[in-house]
Amino acid sequence: MSTDPILVEIVEGTLASVEKEVETAIARTARSPMIRDAHDFRAGIHDVKLRKLTGRSYSALVQPIVRDFPIETMRPGDVYFHNDVYLSEGGIGHLPDLCVTVPVFHEDEVVAFVQAFGHHDDIGGSVPGSMPSHARSVFEEGLMVPPIKLWDQGVPNEAALRIMTRNSRMPDSLAGDLDAECSACLMGARRLAELFQRYGRAAVEECFDAIIGKTTETFRRELLSKIPAGTYVWEDYAEHDGVDEPRLHTQRITLTVDHNAEAPLTIDFTGTSPQAKGPINHAGDYADGVFLKKWLAPILRNLADTPERAAELDVNEGVVPLIKMIFPEKGTLLTPIFPAPTNARTFVILRLLGVLAGVLAKATGGRMPADQETIRYTGVYGTDAEGRPYLMREVLGGGSGGRWYADGEDTIHVVPDSRNIPVEFAEARWPLRVERLGLACDSGGPGEFRGGLGYDKHIRMLRDASYMSIADRSILSCWGVNGGQAGRPFRVDVNGKEMEGLVDDYPVKAGEVIRIRTTGGGGWGSPYDRDPRKVAADVRDGKVSLAGAIGDYGVVLDESGRVDEVGTAELRATLRAGTRPFFDRGPGYPKLAGGRTHADVDQL
Questions:
Q1: What does 197-241 look like in DSSP terms, one character per residue?
Q2: Within the chain, which residues score under 50 in pLDDT?
Q3: Number of H helices, E strands in the chain
Q4: Fewer CB atoms inside 10 A, N or C side of the chain?
């Protein structure tokens, strides 16, 4: 018997509504700025088969919970907790990501799970924020908690909570965040139980199958069909690991497309560099890579016919059967061996989004965006006027890559729904003053479609403090595609002294200014094909300088800011004589690569 399509719509809408309600409840009741204001957390809904049902945001996995706590032993009111990277089946990347999981019951049986995980202020370790940039072991990074029962039938495990808060430099924030997340997930479980009560378990689970099956079929028909059969290779790099001198840490994807295979896409990570001494490793090779499959799949939406259609496509468990993953042997950046450190694993897991986009650009003749910004954490810590310790840590976004149909977006965050910290809130809470928050001129990669711009933020400290940073793309840039140029890399200086990307505790005196300039996205297409009127508009808007208009775009403007058409035509005719690589990595790449050229990599 076919599933009632109307009921499928009702169930699908209810799942999305419950997920949103859980996230809203967490945001309204959490204590830490990272959760409440920066929104660095996610909720997810999974069925009893451990399949992710919702596609609005990514989430962790239920697999480690049911591995250690059989479903038949679970009871209403139970809440499970974990943050152990190596026991999370690949769903948790570093120790500050704390995960709570609540089973949903119908007629005394588990029928689904509600889960939330987020990046918390501090879970111990050698530096405030639990992200030591020079860590050589996971034991330096904070408190590891394997899957435990944090609430037992509605009763919190006070001993476990005391242990966790005792290990945190921000115990009140941690306790408040955990209470918010546990309570929100329990509320979500009650909402889902009402859905099962209303329509019955059999009907609702049929709808779950239909929702997941629809995603599988839609991705296969609308997106994968646009990738020509064949094998394609691309690689990108983390540029430093906090321990060794800067060098290329390779992440390689060999993509094989076979439309007749059960899984049309095979993603082979062979060729990825050995695990790093420092904390840029990501334990992704667990549970057949199921987390990575759902993490990478949103890149495929760029193949949709229109951006509006791409926005309609959810990424749930339905993408998993379409992708086969091949991991190298243990001991690489993606297959690290315990206790390798992982706190800066964003250098790898976010770079992989760009590697998949790059290999698809090669496969489709450039019909993918240029490279985009990656996460970086910047902040300060110290004591306020009352002698109380504080930690201000912000995940500033940057520019996304130019696309085959439009410019990249300015100052966006690669993690959905994440935000910067409002200036008014920051100045009211911490001893600092934000003197500038705007767009970083010329940071977007020049192209027919310009890369998005990064932030330009200036912070004046009012008390002595320590600066911290976990940032990549401080040497290498976001690459351009199809003749587009690379964007500008990440830059920070403290009172005029340039910082490296990985910093734990650089002293900042009262009155000194921290200047942060985040990455710009890569450009798409030759900048000499950009409409000169758009370049003039960018100059008026402060996105491109006069020097950039001439040097990067070959556009000459008169004193009133209008395009000098004759001068532009002559200048562009001269500049077009130079050939451009399909991918442009920017000036830092050949130096760091030790003589490797763009052409070498284009041949991969």
A1: HHH-HHHHHHHHHHHHHHHHHHIIIIIGGGSPSEEEEEEEEE---
A2: none
A3: 15, 21
A4: N
